[in-house]
Amino acid sequence: MANGQTIDIDGKAYDLSELSGEAKKQLGSLQAVDAEIQRLEQRKAIAQTARNAYARALQEELAKMEPAQ
């Protein structure tokens, strides 16, 4: 392998400059999907935090009331 940038995939190092055009295309798509997954996981964490805050606020309000029989 040439002394260039490498990427590790399944425990094997590959020289980026030696990847085929199709392999580079697939790698780019994989990286884009990984970035999207990370973005979605962050959005999920934000939504979960908001849900927890709403649930706490609801519990506080319900604690002020008598339950229906």
Task: Report what the structure shows.
The chain has about 70 residues and is mostly helical. It has one helix and two strands; from the N terminus they run ββα. The protein has one helix at about 20-60, and strands at about 5-10, 10-15. It has a two-stranded antiparallel sheet with strand order 1-2. The model has no long low-confidence stretch (mean pLDDT about 95).
Summarize the structure.
Helix content is 61%, strand content 12%.
Can you tag this structure with a few keywords?
single chain, 69 residues, mainly alpha, two-stranded antiparallel sheet, 61% helix, 12% strand, rod-shaped
Mind telling me the C-alpha Rg?
24 Å
Silhouette: rod-shaped
Name the helix and strand elements from N-terminus to C-terminus, one letter apiece: EEH
Number of helices: 1
* Major sheet: 2 strands, antiparallel
What assembly state would you assign to the polypeptide chains in this entry? Answer: single chain
Structural class by sheet pairing and helices? mainly alpha
Which strand order spans the largest sheet, edge to edge or round the barrel? 1-2
- Helicity range: 55-70%
Low-confidence stretches: none
Mean pLDDT: 94
